[in-house]
Write a structure and sequence with these properties.
alpha/beta; Non-ribosomal Peptide Synthetase Peptidyl Carrier Protein, Chain A; Chloramphenicol Acetyltransferase; six-stranded mixed β-sheet; disordered N terminus
């Protein structure tokens, strides 16, 4: 593409600069922007300026005028005249001069270098993630002598490339070597055939990029020259990030071009001498970044990041490893010219740069994927604010933590405005090195992820040189393989002509390639939508294409089963009576009842109810103990056309009367005086026994249709008043039809009914076998049923009851399968079933009462064992996963489950407003309704669903969204703990406390549990209180009653009050900490970082422990054992003979496994340079 001429640029009519400042500034603009002349009303960004050029303008203004022009001023006053006024009005004092410093004595590291030096000490495996690698393909006649001489001259010119990093008394220092020879290794691949030669080239490139550096020995730059043929070579150059960065790579390539061109022609070095070296900058930086400037910047970052989420909770394909391995891969990304042009136009219209627009889009995508309304994204800045630094090779780049808020109602234009202000404010405070920001903010320390942010965004809007000509040579840049990453996910883009190229780099321990490929598509869709309507709410921006959305909707719909609307439950039962009249329908103790006898008895009840005025949709109470009379009464109600309202006589009288008052039944069917027990008597009670003498046993003729009510079951209400869920015949018939398709006749032959009819599991236990010819075995208490279970083929219950049943002696050998529902199902329970019983399968069933018992299911045959998740929708059911705005979320993203289809209830009885709130029109297909479950799920890659808990029980601590199940699993792994439950106490939206309830050995203490969890979970996930219980409080339906868990007493709270050190080792450590941290006393449970410790002090502590206590500890050991007591215990019981972390096995099996994973990754091309905007 041709370079745009000056008249192609958008500009105001030319008006000559006025005055000395405008004329000087005009000259600076002209040089930076590459235009012939600049008028006083011309616009910096309209002439091609961008963020990086604005930074370079700052440096030139500082050099020319001796003042700091804030980056915000460049944006606020983008015209030449406006900037000149700011310069005239500035009273800024000149920065201290950057001059060469003496090389005698100890040379400090820059702040950024110190961070990388510490990371290398903490984990040498991380070093490969901080390599700056480049490749050049050289075609033509190569002068190898000139090439090596040019490379050596570059090393000679730049002290940073001759620097190694030594440790003196726990403090790092720069050691500059005098030798300048470049370490160029030659490899001849020309004898290999073409396919093998290219494969060998890639392998050489991978080895070169990944081979570790030793910071203490150097050199920290190296290269390989691969000979592919007589006129084709590849030059590979790798530098450690501690001596270089992306800008430096450009300096190196440019100097190589100039020097090689000169040496190949027999000329001398034409490059001007460098005014200063990197070591001069490091000394200068530490000199001026002090006092008020340091405090001002520290204060800004503390305020900016206070309360920000410390972890980006993206939906991962695998759990986060306890130790970050830095294994990474990349996915190439291309944004075409049309989209790029629209993004540029949007940027100009919103008074933003392309960088800011893309940052807003990336933030919006991460927010949507994570479900977090605010996120923190890292972004590198060149940090070369002085002209003297522009030609230096060195590690100048700093990383800024940008906190971006994306509340649901925010529009695209508002997000862009906020992003612009956030970026500008961060630029104004960019001098504070990121490592010092971490120390100022004091986030929770974790070895599993980077602090403060786990996502990076980079835009390189400097025209890149992809090819150049040297004497007799054509040079082309070469993509380098890259299999490491510093962060969970990063987006790097580069302006290439009229479009954008780049890559998404990701942690391969967390994400699959297919996941990132999908997300890349989501980003493009979202960016296009941003350009189409800047006033659209960010939360409603699409992520899916129309085709993807249609495919997702199709995947959420279960197979259809025809004719369900043509049947009532009564008709299904009567059809079965006709098929198997003499088969046993019910068994209760020693009593049995055939299908025909059951039908006759039910008909008697039905006729009696009809006489009392029962018609379709009439509510009829049912209050009877478990036994054949219960089922007779229930069937009789249905046959009369009524809807049965279960009134369990074991329930508290007050609750029964609440249900009676709300449902207002015309009649209450009772047996054995149950109704009288709860205070219901008189004319409206019909006792089943009173119908035995009736002779009208024929099926009543009732105008009953599938849309009439079958039953009303009351569930707990948030106000404490139960609400009645009204289920129609067609909904329960749909459940029955699905079950008949998926459960064998042999499975249903003898089904146990042990659940209270107030719990909708009983609907499955009764109606599925009774419409298939099976026998229903009625038992009062499943755990104590004993011989009553003989011959049972199917158990249908909740996990907690099954666990108790297994503890009490197990299941009869006749049981073919077990249905579990109502509570989250754990692997251990399924494995116990298969280990202790001959059951052929276990099924995990999920569904709220409002969608008729079961809506999704996961069948687990013995051969496959436990399968996580709640499976797929049952027949005629639609399962949508949506965000808080009711928009479909992509696979893998957490959202609320909305259920539609044949199982959806009519609504809540007499609760019109609540029905309207929870039951919505199904706008995804334009017909029917959906029920908002309030349950959080995500779709797995195989299309099944994972259940993650209730959305109204979400727990947030310090911005983290916490999965309580993860804490419970860690607690259950503690010695002495049999079972555990974790809840969050406190007002929603306020300060909440995690409380652990557990069952187990009395000898296990709360302190023991806490210390166990501290070694396995981040600090924000460790409960503050621990309560031991002998038994869980249960609801009448056998579920855990979380609301009945007791409030922890004062002695259950773990308080970190001062506890004196115990023993010689703790006392010695306490003294060292006191001396190092400058505090009067250190208790055995005090936390190193909470007392003011930071990364460099950790290194000094390591040295002090070795010198004074004779123990050699790894830096990682000090990070993992952060209290005096923990560290002392480790020193007594742990590995003491470990020195510096130099090899992979220093991290034990976790590190070895991580390295094996990384080495096994396929190679993918990626730009390995670090790019700055």
């Amino acid at each position: 593409m041709p370079t745009p001429e000056a008249d192609a640029l958008i500009r105001e009519a030319y008006v000559a600069p006025m005055g000395e400042v405008e004329e000087a500034l005009s000259q600076l603009w002209s040089e930076l922007l590459g235009v012939d002349r600049v008028g006083r009303h011309d616009h910096f960004f309209a002439l091609g300026g961008h963020s990086l050029l604005a930074v370079r303008l700052q440096a030139r203004v500082q050099e020319r005028f001796g003042i700091e022009l804030a980056l915000r001023d460049v944006f606020a006053e983008p015209t030449l005249a406006g900037q000149a006024q700011r310069i005239d009005a500035s009273n800024d004092a000149r920065l201290p001069a950057l001059v060469p410093t003496a090389r005698e004595g100890r040379l400090p590291l820059s702040w950024s270098q110190q961070r990388l030096w510490f990371l290398d000490r903490l984990d040498a495996a991380a070093g490969a993630a901080y390599h700056v690698a480049a490749g050049l393909r050289l075609r033509g006649r190569l002068d190898e002598v000139a090439l090596e001489r040019a490379l050596s001259r570059i090393v000679e010119r730049h002290e940073a490339l001759r620097t190694r990093f030594v440790e003196i008394d726990g403090e790092p220092a720069q050691q500059i070597e005098t030798g300048s020879d470049f370490n160029l290794r030659r490899v001849d691949l020309s004898t290999l055939e073409m396919p093998a030669r290219e494969a060998a080239r890639e392998e050489q490139a991978r080895e070169e990029a990944q081979e570790r550096f030793d910071l203490s020995r150097g050199p920290l730059i190296r290269g390989r020259l691969l000979r592919l043929g007589p006129n084709e070579h590849v030059l590979l150059v790798t530098q450690h990030h501690i001596v270089s960065d992306g800008w430096s790579l450009g300096v190196l390539v440019e100097e190589l071009r100039v020097l090689y061109g000169a040496y190949a022609q027999g000329l001398s070095d034409p490059l001007p001498a460098l005014p200063v070296q990197y070591a001069d900058y490091a000394v200068w930086q530490r000199g001026w970044l002090t006092g008020e400037r340091w405090e001002t910047q520290s204060r800004y970052w503390r305020e900016q990041l206070r309360g920000a989420p410390e972890l980006l909770s993206l939906p991962v394909d695998r759990p986060r490893p306890a130790v970050q391995s830095y294994a990474g891969r990349t996915h190439a990304l291309h944004l075409d010219a049309v989209l790029t042009g629209r993004l540029r136009a949007l940027s100009q219209a919103q008074d933003a740069t392309l960088y800011m627009t893309l940052l807003a889009g990336w933030s919006a995508l991460l927010s949507r994927l994570s479900g977090q309304a605010e996120i923190v994204i890292g972004t590198p800045v060149a940090n070369r604010s002085r002209v003297e630094l522009e030609g230096l090779i060195g590690f100048f780049v700093n990383t800024l933590a940008l906190r971006v808020r994306t509340p649901g109602e925010m529009t695209v234009s508002s997000l862009m405005s906020l992003t612009r202000e956030t970026a500008l404010a961060a630029y104004e405070h960019q001098d504070l090195p990121f490592d010092r920001v971490v120390d100022a903010v004091q986030p929770s320390r974790s070895l599993s992820h980077s602090p403060i942010f786990q996502s990076l965004f980079v835009l390189d809007n400097v025209a890149s040189v992809t090819a150049m000509d040297l004497p007799d040579l054509r040079v082309e840049s070469l993509s380098m393989p890259h299999t490491t990453t510093q962060f969970d996910i990063s987006l790097s883009l580069m302006e290439v002509g009229d479009h954008l190229e780049g890559a998404i780099e990701y942690a391969s321990d967390l994400f699959d390639a297919q996941t990132i490929a999908r997300w890349s598509g989501y980003l493009e869709v979202l960016l296009r939508a941003m350009t189409e309507d800047p006033e659209r709410a960010v939360a409603t921006l699409p992520l899916l294409t129309d085709a993807e959305r249609s495919q997702l909707l199709e995947s959420r719909v279960a197979p259809l089963q025809a004719e369900i609307d043509a049947w009532t439950l009564v008709e299904r039962f009567q059809a079965q009576v006709s098929r198997t009249p003499e088969a046993i329908a019910l068994r209760s103790g020693q009593t049995t009842l055939s299908y025909a006898a059951l039908n006759d008895a039910a008909n008697r009840v039905a006729h009696a109810l009809i006489e009392r005025g029962v018609t379709p949709d009439t509510c009829v109470g049912l209050c009877a103990p478990r036994g054949v009379e219960l089922v007779i009464g229930l069937l009789g109600i249905l046959k009369a056309g009524g809807a049965y309202v279960p009134l369990d006589p074991s329930y508290p009288r007050e609750r029964v009367w609440q249900m009676l008052d709300d449902s207002a039944p015309r009649v209450v069917v009772s047996a054995k005086g149950a109704a009288e027990q709860v205070g219901v008597d008189g004319a409206r009670v019909l006792d089943v026994a009173d119908t035995y003498s009736r002779t009208d046993t024929h099926d009543p003729v009732v105008a009953l249709r599938p849309e009439h009510l079958a039953y009303v079951i009351y569930t707990s209400g948030s106000t404490g008043v139960p609400k009645g869920v009204a289920i129609e015949h067609r909904s329960i018939v749909n459940l029955v039809a699905w079950a008949h398709e998926n459960f064998a006749v042999e499975d249903l032959a003898c089904t146990v009914c042990s659940t209270s009819i107030n719990f909708d599991l009983a609907a499955f236990e009764l109606w599925v076998p009774l419409t298939q010819g099976g026998t229903v075995v009625l038992v009062e208490d499943l755990v104590r049923a004993g011989e009553q279970l003989d011959g049972a083929t199917l158990i249908n219950t909740v996990p907690s009851v099954l666990k108790a049943l297994l503890d009490a002696g197990g299941l009869p050998t006749s049981v073919r399968g077990v249905n579990l529902a109502g509570e989250p199902l754990k692997r251990e329970l399924v494995e116990r079933v298969f280990a202790q019983t001959p059951a052929a399968w276990v099924a995990n069933l999920y569904g709220p009462t409002e969608t008729t018992t079961y809506s999704t299911w996961q069948r687990m045959p013995r051969a496959s064992g436990f399968v996580p998740g709640i499976g797929v929708p049952v027949a005629n059911t639609r399962a949508y996963v949506v965000d808080e705005h009711g928009e479909l979320v992509p696979p893998g993203v957490v959202g609320e489950l909305w259920l539609g289809g044949a199982g959806v209830a009519r609504g809540y009885l007499h609760r019109t407003s609540l029905t309207a709130e929870r039951f919505l029109a199904d706008r995804f297909i334009g017909e029917g309704r959906v029920y908002r479950t309030g349950d959080l799920v995500r779709q797995r890659p195989d299309g099944t669903l994972d259940y993650l808990g209730r959305n109204d029980f979400q727990v947030k601590v310090r911005g983290y969204r916490i999965e309580l199940g993860e804490i419970e699993a860690a607690l259950q792994a503690c010695a002495g703990v049999r079972d555990a439950v974790v809840v969050a106490r406190g007002e929603a939206g306020g300060e909440r406390t995690l409380v652990a309830y557990w069952q187990g050995e009395e000898s296990t203490t709360a302190t023991t549990l806490r210390h166990h969890l501290q070694g396995r979970l981040p600090g924000y996930m460790v409960p503050s209180a621990y309560v031991r219980l002998d038994a869980w409080p249960l609801t009448p339906n056998g579920k855990l009653d979380r609301s009945a868990l007791p409030t922890p007493e004062a002695d259950a709270l773990i308080r970190e009050a001062y506890v004196a050190p115990m023993g010689e080792v703790e006392e010695a450590l306490s003294q060292l900490w006191s001396e190092l941290l400058g505090v009067d006393r250190v208790g055995r449970h005090d936390h190193f970082f909470a007392l003011g410790g930071h990364s460099l002090l950790v290194v000094r502590l390591q040295v002090m422990i070795e010198q004074q206590l004779g123990h050699r500890l790894n830096i990682v050991d000090l990070f993992m054992h952060t209290t005096v007591a923990q560290l002392a215990t480790f020193m007594r019981d742990g590995n003491r003979g470990v020195g510096r972390l130099a090899d992979s096995d220093r991290r034990g099996e976790l590190r070895r496994e991580a390295l094996l994973r990384r080495r096994g990754r396929p190679i993918e091309s990626e730009r390995a340079t670090e790019l700055e905007d």
